[in-house]
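Fill in residues.
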């Protein structure tokens, strides 16, 4: 799980470490300047995708 700002570096590092196909969940950037309610809304929006990436099934 990373923010949009770090996609390029995360892609490069994972490839260098032999994990080029590593799955990523990309969140909006920046998060630290957003209000708590907006961060909670983002978390609710992306939570199902996170579970799916982790292989969680209902």
């Amino acid at each position: 799980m990373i923010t949009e700002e770090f996609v390029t570096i995360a892609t490069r590092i994972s490839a260098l470490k032999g994990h080029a196909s590593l799955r990523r969940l990309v969140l909006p950037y920046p998060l630290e300047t957003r209000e708590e309610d907006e961060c909670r809304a983002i978390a609710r929006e992306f939570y199902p995708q996170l579970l799916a990436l982790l292989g969680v099934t209902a």
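The helical segments are 7-16, 36-53.
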